[in-house]
Amino acid sequence: MRTERNLTRLDRVFARLDREPERPAHIDVPRMSRHRVALIAGGLAFYLAIVWLVVDTSWLVRLDWQVMFFRPYQQWAEIHWFVDYYVVLGQRGPTAVMVAAWLGWRSWRQHTLRPLLTLGAVLLLLNITVGAAKLGMGRLGPHYATTIGANEMGLGGDIFPSGHTANAVVTWGILAYLASTPRARRWLSAVSAVTSLGVGLATVYLGTHWLSDVILGWVAGLLVLLALPWCEPLIARTETAVFDLRDRWRARRSAPAAVRPVEVPMPLKPRTPATQSEPAARSARTPVHLAPGPHSVRSERTPITPVGPRRPPQPDRVARGTTSAARPLTGG
Questions:
Q1: Measuring CA to CA, how many Å separate 238 from each of 52, 109, 191?
Q2: Residues 56, 215, 181, CA angle at the centre, nearest 5°?
Q3: SS in 3 state form for the chain?
Q4: Cα 48–chain centre separation
Q5: pTM of this prediction exceeds 0.90
Q6: pLDDT digit string, tens, across residues 243-270
Q7: Is the Cβ–Cβ distance between 51 and 216 less than 8 Å?
Q8: How far apart are CA 146 and CA 144, in angstroms?
Q9: pLDDT per residue over 93-106, tens digit each?
Q10: pLDDT tens digits for 192-249?
Q11: Pair 197, 248: CB distance under 8 Å
């Protein structure tokens, strides 16, 4: 009997992801509209106003010192452990890894590099804008303040605006920016707003930032998200260039190796077999003798008479010219 496997919650999640279209052509890429330009102009005006209030040591600076002297981490000490963990949601390293993992999954499922390239572009804008403002204003934090009631500007600090707050706005807001449906965009916008608001207040609770730092961090992160549509043409061209490079690399790997032209062999003369003229040619050469000096022909040599008998000696044979008396007589 065949039974079906019980699907777990993770299986249902992956089954739902499988129904997502491969190439999300229906998703509208945000463009720079008049409404967005108006929001950017208003955000820049508010940004400059906050900076001016801090530089002028106005009521906002006095509010910063009042909150610092209140010491929230001592008033609500029982939630200190939770705030220590919650503030990690604003640190650039852990949040970038988590968001990049999710956007990488989306890029792989949808066969597009736009989510990852958008994340890279928004982090680059954040580092340039917020980092330059931090180093340019050089404000010291509450733990390193030197003069009570002063704005602590230009003393080599790097906390104004709050990097934790701006990073939380940008990192979690990019999920709403890249949402596939309007409903998902609304929900993710609300979640990112609550998360970034909590991260900013957590830094004030721990005493690592002034309240004005957090306010300016919220505005800085929001300006980066609003200006992101200006980067969309560059993101599209980068994605096209990467895919073209990948296609050329695949074509180069799949193409057969180029066949080298075969060189024309040099014609060789066939070797003729040995004929009767070969011995004559050999005899025509000058004879080589081992002994040096001239030699005579065989016919011109003096005949040599051998000395002594050629037969072995025989004792019973009488030599010629001797008398016969010496020879014994036999018979009648």
A1: 39, 19, 30
A2: 150
A3: CCCCCCCCHHHHHHHHHHCCCCCCCCCCCCCCCHHHHHHHHHHHHHHHHHHHHHHCCCHHHHHHHHHHHHCHHHHCHHHHHHHHHHHHHHCHHHHHHHHHHHHHHHHHHHCCCHHHHHHHHHHHHHHHHHHHHHHHHCCCCHHHCCCCCCCCCCCCCCCCCCHHHHHHHHHHHHHHHCCCCHHHHHHHHHHHHHHHHHHHHHHHHHCCCCHHHHHHHHHHHHHHHHCHHHHHHHHHHHHHHHHHHHHHHHHHHHCCCCCCCCCCCCCCCCCCCCCCHHHHHHHCCCCCCCCCCCCCCHHHCCCCCCCCCCCCCCCCCCCCCCCCCCCCCCCC
A4: 41
A5: no
A6: 888 888 878 877 665 555 656 566 666 6
A7: yes
A8: 6
A9: 899 999 999 998 88
A10: 999 999 999 999 999 999 999 999 999 999 999 999 999 989 998 998 888 888 888 8
A11: no
In angstroms, rounded to a whole number, what is the distance separating the alpha carbons of residues 158 and 141? 8
100: left (phi > 0), else alpha (psi -120 to 50), else beta? alpha
Q: Six-digit token pair at 10?
A: 């993770």
Contact present, 192 and 176 (Cβ < 8 Å): yes
Alpha-carbon distance 55 to 57, whole Å?
A: 5
Q: Return the structure tokens found at 37.
A: 């330009």
Residue 218 · residue 170 · CB < 8 Å: no
Amino acid 264 reads V
